[in-house]
Design goal:
Layout lengths: L5 H14 L3 E5 L18 H4 L5 H6 L1 H20 L4 H11 L6 E3 L5 H5 L6 E3 L2 E8 L5 E2 L1 H11 L12 E5 L8 H13 L2 E5 L10 H8 L3 E5 L12 E3 L3 H5 L6
Parallel strand pairs: 1-2, 1-7, 2-3, 7-8, 8-9
Antiparallel strand pairs: 4-5, 4-6
Helix pairs in contact: 8-9
This protein binds nicotinamide-adenine-dinucleotide.
Length: about 250
Amino acid sequence: MIASDLRSGVERLGVMIAESSVIVPFTGAGISTECGIPDFRSPGGLWTRNRPIPFADFVASSDARDEAWRRRFAMEPAFAAARPGRGHRALASLYKADKIPAIVTQNIDNLHQVSGFAADHVVELHGNTTYARCIGCGQAYDLPWVRQRFDAAGTAPDCMICAEPVKTATISFGQAMPEDAMRRAAELAQQCDLFLAIGSSLVVWPAAGFPLMARNSGAKLVIINNEPTEQDDIADLVIRHDIGETLGPFVGN
Ligand code: NAD
């Protein structure tokens, strides 16, 4: 059912939240646009400017690695300035109230952790861009370490331990999904009674399979997104409005 207007959507969502005991949110880039981080597919989104660099290209080409890091450094002012928005804060309030055991996110911006979720309770399907890892041995590096070496050598640094390339700790197209996060997301989708898909175009698979999985396991499904998604038909409630306005009323004290 598509909510006829914002107000009735918020009211209906409030009832569904009150009636649920285990709520699992599943978030996409749309929850962070009001924080100044562009999404992928909206007009002005990242894809309209830069095609993503597939994992195989990153591994094969030092030019691709340099380009990936130049893009990441160019985004740093936006990532560094971003603070949790109304959507993040509303979900953190429900987490504090023990309604949400953990959150599943496609986002890489760390804003759910900043809003109050314990890092253990943020299941990151596509990793995290606020730090880096060696793609060989997994050694973690902070971004200033990468930046300093990039600036000094004019090229992206390799791992100090195994000399393999260092990449933001994110999952690129063509890169294997993190097994533990996928397993935990599936468990959460199957165990909740309310699943909230928020700010995702639901076109990036396998992540987009989780709303369907939750619905098939008996949960109610709510989709909050300002444009239609391919899964609107199976949702119990679709709120096609701004996320901050929709979730603002659920921000606690
Ligand atoms: P997407 O760009 O495909 O979809 C975002 C959706 O949110 C769009 O349908 C858009 O219309 C909607 N939206 C944007 N702002 C909104 C608002 N204020 N209110 C309501 N709806 C809004 O993003 P996705 O589905 O998350 O998939 C893209 C992939 O890109 C993810 O896997 C993620 O790893 C990566 N990504 C992450 C970030 C981030 O961490 N903030 C930003 C860009 C891309």
